Amino acid sequence: MNLELGNRESLILNILAEKGSLSVTSLARELDVSEVTIRSDLKNLEAKGFLNRTRGGAQSSFSRDILERQRLNIEEKSRIAKAAAEFVHDGDTIMIEAGTTTALIIRYLTGKRGVQIVTNSTLVFSNARLNPALSIILTGGIFRKETESLVGPVALKAISEFNVRYAFVGTDGFSIERGLTTQLVEGAEIVKAMKGRAEETWLVADSSKYGKTGFVSVLPLGEVNGIITDTRIDESALRVMSEVNLQVRRV
């Protein structure tokens, strides 16, 4: 699936993120195009998972923050997610933490059978619900709209009851000095819990996250098995990561 967005599609998502919902007529008037064009745009955006069409219009599926992050580094995120999905074989058990890159992994599991997935991500659920070959277990917990995640004691208890082969986790920033970091304490707890129940934990993050530091420290970088990132990652960063025996896969 091509996740690239045109200028008009981006404008539509910005408008919907601010106003919640709009009619085809008002969108056509605001963007100075025909209603036929708007309907076509809405159909494409719904297929990409960005919005829900309603009778005579559409409403945003996600918060403005999620929409903005989904539109960043789309091609890199897609390649990273595809590479992560290649780790997964028929009958595997995996955990997927909430995030815009991790959520894309589901789209590349098509054709694989008997995969059981434990996740705290409603984005993952949204992408997986139409694939009957996948078994999805939502953790439950407190819903955080800004991250489309389920967190808190209920989510942590659910995670503790499963054992999986792989955990795929995201981050708001990572570096050798600070490790994995995030903006939310609750998100850090989820990552730690998933790592504790997985044979291998892999960070999926595009190169723009390297060197950034979130509010909360999650894990030292050396405590994950590896990272799947894009080819723009700095060479000096690769050298430093090799010193902590971190496997790095660039795609």
CATH class term of the largest domain:
Alpha Beta
- Overall number of structural domains: 2
Terminus-to-terminus distance: 18 Å
Strand numbers in spatial order across the main sheet: 6-5-4-9-12-14-15
Q: Please tally the helical runs, counting DSSP H or I stretches of 4 or more residues.
A: 9
DSSP E strands, number: 15
**What series of H and E elements makes up the topology?**
HEHHEEHHEEHEEEHEEEHEEEHE
Structural class: alpha/beta
Architecture (CATH level 2) name of the largest domain: 3-Layer(aba) Sandwich
Q: Return the CATH topology of the largest domain.
A: Rossmann fold
Morphology: globular
Q: What oligomeric state do the depicted chains represent?
A: single chain
Mean pLDDT: 90
Regions with pLDDT < 50 over 5+ consecutive residues? none
Strand content: 25-35%
What's the Cα radius of gyration? 19 Å
- Share in helix: 25-40%
- Major sheet, described briefly? 7 strands, parallel
Task: Describe the overall structure.
The chain is 36% helix and 25% strand. It has 251 residues and is an alpha/beta fold. The chain has 2 domains: 7-69, Arc Repressor Mutant, subunit A (Orthogonal Bundle); 72-250, 3-Layer(aba) Sandwich (Rossmann fold). It has a 7-stranded parallel β-sheet, with helices on both faces. Strands 1-3-2 form a 3-stranded antiparallel β-sheet. A 3-stranded antiparallel β-sheet has the order 10-11-13, with helices on one face. The longest helix has 13 residues, at 7-19. The mean pLDDT is 90.
